[in-house]
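Researcher: Next entry in the queue.
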Amino acid sequence: MFESAEAGHTVSQKAFRREEAVLRNELLLAQNALRNEAAFPVLIVIAGMEGSGRRETIACLHEWLDPRFLSTVAFVDADRDDPDHPPMWRYWQALPPRGRIGILADSWYAAPMAQRLAGELKRMQLDARLERIRRLETLLVNEGALLLKFWFHLGKAAQMARYRQLRDHPETAWRVSAASRMRLGQYDAVRKVAAHVLRLSSTAEAPWIILDGSDDNYRKLAVGRALRDALAQRAGHPPPRIPHAAPLQTGRDRRNVLSTLDLSLALSDRKYERELARLQGRLAGLMRHRRFARHSLVLAFEGMDAAGKGGAIRRVSAALDPRIFQIVPVAAPSDEERAQPWLWRFWRRVPGKGRVTIFDRSWYGRVLVERIEGFCSEADWLRAYAEICDFEHELVEAGAIVLKFWLQIDKAEQLRRFREREQTSWKQFKITQEDWRNRGKWAQYQEAAVDMIDRTGTGRAPWITIEANDKRHARIKILRSICEAVEHAMGID
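Model: Structure for this entry, 493 residues:
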């Protein structure tokens, strides 16, 4: 795999200066076109052997391009630097918006490779991490990103020569640390792990470009050419689409997870008030428990219009310390959010450990309203099922307790609540023409909700269906479900 990158490619200083003048101009023109059209983002992953020139190449790109529209984020020991969030959270924060170029130094590959070298990851665990990375990269490409991944390689002799060059020069000696000296002694192990990682993570949509890192001039020109050519090839062409989901079944039985709910379930006022106080106190105590510091709580509320999501959220939040929770009302994405992959606006709201985030509507809009209203293509919402499961898996793996509630009412109850809202002054803002229009698509929303629950309900991030014709019953069932899930996660009987 690395043989051609150890061949000792060289470019003279004269040849470098001659080509640099032309290449730099071409890159600036391509960057300006990218910025003006803002059709897609560019993400450049820079990784490689110790001493292979990653720092110098990134500095060169900042010199050649307009640095105002270029960002670089370095991830040295990301898993340990921010233990409160899922590992992928920090990378989502670093994604460039459409029209911009972002450079990730080492990126999501650095931590699993370092942990494998340290003996902290078994081969099977490393492969599982790489599979999650491949799925993330597929999502980014499907969302339109141009993804370039460079690995700068060095042979053992070239690495040692580079080390001596840095060590012996007063201006670069500071870069030779104890850690870098240790990695020199791990050359064979690093090469073996790198070969395995690159082989498993090089895909048709996001291949690795392996370059000889021994000559600065050759490496810089090779990266510049690759970026220029990729931008030119992509200009005016739609991004590739990678199949990511099986089609939905048709002709299913009329009985389903929603149609079989008993919507007649109800609570008396007296029992409701007693249970509400008891469960709110129980939840408040769980949030103060020392074990909750190892977890976070993510609650997603979905349901038909006027199903009672807002009232249920108020009863949950009343039990929480305002300092540890946030409520995120989800509406149409803003311009800033549309410039990013569709899950970005939810990743940025992921709570740290010891905290709670409540989503009033959620990422499931992609397979509900966006599916039904045609705001995204069929391919986009079909692949969203798997992308949602990956997202929730990342949260759960990092200690989050993820619960998703679907509040179900029948059509007659919805009509009663709509009319009540129109006739109650302080509720009139809650009813719009869009609500009445959506009511005409009742059957489509029900079908989409059944598909959503079937495809994304898992044991670790379950859907909890709520019989919501009676608001009192719905609120108590929600509070009880949260308490039981938190107690189970924390090992409390």
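Model: The chain has a mean pLDDT of 91.
Researcher: Noted, moving on.
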